[in-house]
Amino acid sequence: VKEKVLGILKENSARYVSGEHISEALGVSRAAIWKHIKDLKKEGYVIIASSKKGYSLVSVPDVLNSYEIIYNLKTGIIGSNIIYREEIDSTNNYAKKIASEGCKDGTVVVAECQTAGRGRLGRMWDSARNKGIYMSIVLRPEVAPEDVQIITIAASIAVAEAIRDITGMEAAIKWPNDIILDGKKVCGILTEMSSEMEKVNFLVVGIGLNVNHSREDFPEELANTATSLRIYAEQNSTGTAPAELDFRLNRSSLVKAVLTEMENVYCMVNNGNTDEVVRQWKEYSVTLGKEVLITSKSAEYRGFAKDITKDGRLIVDCSDGVTREVMSGEVKVRGLLGYT
Ligand code: BTN
What we know:
Layout: H1 2-11, H2 19-26, H3 30-42, E1 46-50, E2 54-59, H4 66-70, E3 82-85, H5 91-100, E4 108-111, E5 133-139, H6 149-167, E6 172-174, E7 178-181, E8 184-195, E9 200-209, H7 229-235, H8 251-270, H9 274-284, E10 291-295, E11 300-308, E12 314-318, E13 323-326, E14 330-333
Parallel strand pairs: 3-4
Antiparallel strand pairs: 1-2, 4-5, 5-9, 6-7, 7-8, 8-9, 10-11, 10-14, 11-12, 12-13
Biotin (BTN) is lined by residues 90-92, 114, 117-120, 123, 125, 134-136, 178, 188-190, 206-208.
């Protein structure tokens, strides 16, 4: 009911709605409506009440609760089920757990903070409370286990497009799936899989997006390599901004945009239209045509990133004269993230 009360207030935002109207529309008592209004205020919604005119929603807090995300979300699969936590160890861990218990394709787990956020290659992911977007999407795609890289590639397109849609910032992609702004990393994606020899049971695509972090929110060792949308906006604003403008972005709109774009690319993959996924990825790539340093468990290669394959491998003309297809591992791109 609380969500429905909020929905009515939102439809009439900046206008008063009488308690009587809400109570009739939802078939609950006015006392119950008042209780939900009180709860919403506690969550940070600014609602003013007038004994004559009723309630008016003045502002919405920057929270990622499921009703903020669901409101006006027009996807069919991605986000059809949303689980929200204020704090969690890792959204990927929780998503894997519920995926193995059979949750729906497109289920999303989102949190305000992670106590054990994980990055690729065993690293940790800095997950400052209320600043970023930490979310995992459970997918049950129709691809063979050896082709799942395309899903990670697709997810990076979704994030880059969502950033572009909402902020106009020219987010780019470093292979396979780091999102880059101004040569620094703004988002990382960690895809984990459960599969059998020939069949993918599920994938969990974990997205960590730095949104409202200020420079002080990042630990020292990330100072030169990490950025946030807010830092970028502040750096690139022209003229003198009014003091009250602090360049914060509304995170739930970004989540909605990521889910919407994810649905587009996910459908492309499931329809076998991976050519289009690869084409879009190339459009945003900051890896192709660049000098790269590839470090895998067994070796290190320098070379020139030439292309990617239909299943998302990077094709590199290496300095030893051999052309290699790189599946995973660490890739440094000259000129990015402190690699010179
Ligand atoms: C990387 O190393 O670049 C990948 C970072 C992925 C971080 C996200 S945050 C949400 C999800 N839960 C995790 O524990 N990790 C991913």
